Amino acid sequence: MKLNFLAGCARILKPVLFTASLLIVNWYEASAQLGSQQIKYLSGRDNRTKVQWDFYCTGGRKSGYWTKIAVPSCWEQQGFGAYNYGRDYKTYGKNFRFADEQGIYKLNFAVPKAWANMDVYLVFEGSMTDTEVKINGKATGEKHQGAFYEFKYNISNKLKFGSNNLLEARVSKMSADASVNNAERLADYWVFGGIFRPVYLAAYPKQHISHIAIDAKANGDFKMQVYPEHLKQNMQVVTQITDLKGKLLKSMTANVRSTDSVVNIAAKVNNPLQWTSETPNLYKVNVALKSGGSTIYQTTEKFGFRTIEIRKGDGIYINGVNVKMKGINRHSWWPETGRTLNDDIQLMDVKLMKEMNMNAVRMSHYPPDKKFLEICDSLGLYVLDELAGWQKAYSTAAGKKLVKEMVLRDENHPSIIFWDNGNEGGTNKELDQEFVKYDFSKRPVIHPHHKPGNAFNGIDCNHYEDYYSSKNILNDSLIYMPTEFLHAQDDGGGGTAMADFWDLHWKSKRSGGGFIWALVDEGIVRTDQNNIVDVNGVNAPDGVLGPHREKEGSFFALREIFSPVHITMKDLPANFNGTIPVENRFHYTNLNQCTFNWELIDYRKPNETDGGYITKKKGTLTAPSIVPVAAGNMQINLPTDWKSYDALTLSAYDPFKNLLYRWVWKNTNERLLNKVMDLTGTKPVQVTETDSTLLLKAGTISMTFNKRNGQILSMTGNTGDNLSFGSGPMPVSGTATFKDIRHRTEADGELVEVTYTGDMKYARWKMFGSGWVSLDYEYDLPKGDYPYAGITFTYPENFVLGAKWLGKGPYRVWKNRLQGVVDNVWENAYNNTQTGSAPWIFPEFKGYFADIAWMEFNTVEGKFVVAAKEPNLYVRLFDFYGLSGIKPFPSLPSGNLSFLDAIPAMGTKLGLKIDGSTAKLGPLSEANHLGGTTKRTLYFYFGLLEQAGKNTQQFTRPVVDELFDSSPSTAPAKKLKGQ
């Protein structure tokens, strides 16, 4: 006979935000009506509402004496015991033994006299790891072994009703069962001790329903198993199916004999709204035990109509539609409280995944809190619910009990699509049929693995294949759905290379999608180390979010890559007429169910205190009818003067009005710089020359060149302060040997020409009377592969306060992660964040930044601005890395302030271990294939633009026409006068 450890709990923990004052109350009654389950919490309900129990820790900190502890909690976070990461045995050797503290808990509690004739269960939602329980000195049952599973004891015959009772629990951090330790503790994650999820009493009438199991198919076929308990006479089971508003859809009545252990219910609901990640339609089933017209017991469960199919050699089908999982792996985690969470955190994590346009999540590497699954049901995420087993499996004896507990708790959640039997070798195949045995709806079981040849049920879940091996697998006969790929340690993986990977999976018939490793950096607040946030070196900073859900660059890249409104147009065509090609990458949603808004905007100037942009005109467009996985066009009816604005934006919203993505296409740099630069000036540029130096001066701005190498020797801004900008330009790839430096006076300024032998050809500086300076340069690289290309200078990093720019942002990019950044006026204060490490200040200040029109540097010496005539300029800001290691990756160009035409790709922790390069991650991850001549013009202003504006006027249209060529950017740059 099945037992339900959670009968009615799903409806008890409603998605509300509990305040501390409300949670002081320990009572919750499911209903005032006689015959319903009643609950009394003995602990708090989450990490914010903990109840103090008596506690004795046997080892480590605060051990050897009785004190108090908050329950639920991980006891390390309450200052007890010792910290362990699951792979400490690698650090300390084969003789290492985990801290094996035991925690002894005591709690005095009262039970109402009215419960004397009820079945009363003591329920633990999660306790790490072995748990032995006594009530009033009597053992409640066998020791429970397994940390992440709900278990319960019937304690009715041990209670003193209407009086005080004593609960005693002994929790051992390490299990006496070696297989439990192997599966749960010797793992690549933090391991804790303690009662980390809530504890409560659940009271039922003697005659009640212990469990209901639902199987509701997409076509409306509804089946249910009802498990009555302790019936004394024949009764009826009355079932009502309603929508969430209470509208009755179907009512059924079945007779049940007192000897029956299970009642089967079947019905047909016409045209139900189906449950998918895009349409998370839920229903309720109300089940009542009745005798002679009186209700003896009743309970309610939510469910969804949906059908799961694995069509071998074809794909994964939900409700008859081929679906690809846009997924990520998620640990139950919070830095201050470890694995003890609250409803806000559960909701936040689901919303963050939905914000990334994901439709799936894998539970790594254990079942989550119930609330998380409820939110996945209601907001729409496909779930892979996982039996623990990190590279080593439970024994059959231990695993059978835990599979039963897991399945009976979770089986009615429509969000759960697969059961995962362990992880990466932690699969005990003898347990496969245990899932089938207890799951009434017979969901598929899969085997997540890191080695080929472990496919199960037609699905290959092999981890961390590269782009090309993935391509081979997808061309084979199995469905391929990697349950881990693109490992996101530090700033690698995640969104890195995902554009190539996702395009490959999306276009492959037998792809089931995949799951990135992982959602969050598992940084724990160390109560033994002055509350530092510890990620255990390179073991745990694997997220696209920081420990407190700080958004990294990959978060936004994934949002664009996974957007179901798929737009690849990078720039506005010269003949743009408002038509935008679009692909519908929804599985169930027509694009005409979405909403689209457009704006014409003007960007603010560097010297304006408010950054960003001003909306000048806006409107909506009629959403085109494009069915799922089809392509078409959308049409923006733009005003005739649309070209006179700085940029066009388009925002797409799903049917629930959630923003999917916002695209921005900016105007030419010609227009953008016309608002910023001033190349006029009535006073001539002063020239002072010595044997070794050449000084140009316009007002208070001066530049001194070293005549022996052609580089900038010193500089003064318009405030009269020195600026330590110099040591360039030098090429970051190729050769440059100084040849000569010459200067001459031209009508609009002073020209200094530096020539070289080698791949760098020349650098032509011109100072205008306004103080603006232009730099034309040319280099000619031999055909080959290069990590980067462009020119570089130096500036003291410790002098930098921040930067403001017009270009892609606010996050840095890599060659194979250009998504997720849009054009705007951005401003970042200086920080020294290395992704995956404290202090998790995002966006990172240092890195490669894309498509810069202008960038203003704020320093302790004053400000200076760099602007680009041509598009597609990358600016490298100072010294940083993507992946930590013996040698941080990738290598950096010389200097520390670089202006580049090509930047390197980023790799992954595991990918670099294979061959030390990124090339196997796909076409965008290859080195830059370059060769030939490159010309570019940069403009500099050293000082405050506010000061420049007081003394000069904007340059006129004829000057703009002279400086900017309308020919394509690949054409030779237009020569300045006098050349």
Write up this protein.
The protein has 979 residues and is mainly β. The protein folds into 4 domains: 197 residues, Galactose-binding domain-like (Jelly Rolls); 254 residues, Alpha-Beta Barrel (TIM Barrel); 102 residues, Sandwich (Immunoglobulin-like); 144 residues, no CATH class. The N terminus and C terminus are likely disordered.
So, CATH architecture of the largest domain?
Alpha-Beta Barrel
Largest sheet: 9 strands, antiparallel
Strand tally is 61
Category by helix and strand content: mainly beta
Mean pLDDT: 91
Which band does the percent of strand residues land in? 35-45%
Cα-atom Rg, whole angstroms?
33 Å
Tell me the span between the first and last alpha carbons.
Answer: 93 Å
Shape: elongated
Extract low-pLDDT stretches. 1-33, 949-979
Helix content percent band: 10-25%
Summarize, please.
The protein is mostly beta strands. It is 12% helix and 38% strand. The protein folds into four domains: 9-205, Jelly Rolls (Sandwich), CATH 2.60.120.260; 308-561, TIM Barrel (Alpha-Beta Barrel), CATH 3.20.20.80; 565-666, Sandwich (Immunoglobulin-like); 790-933, no CATH class.
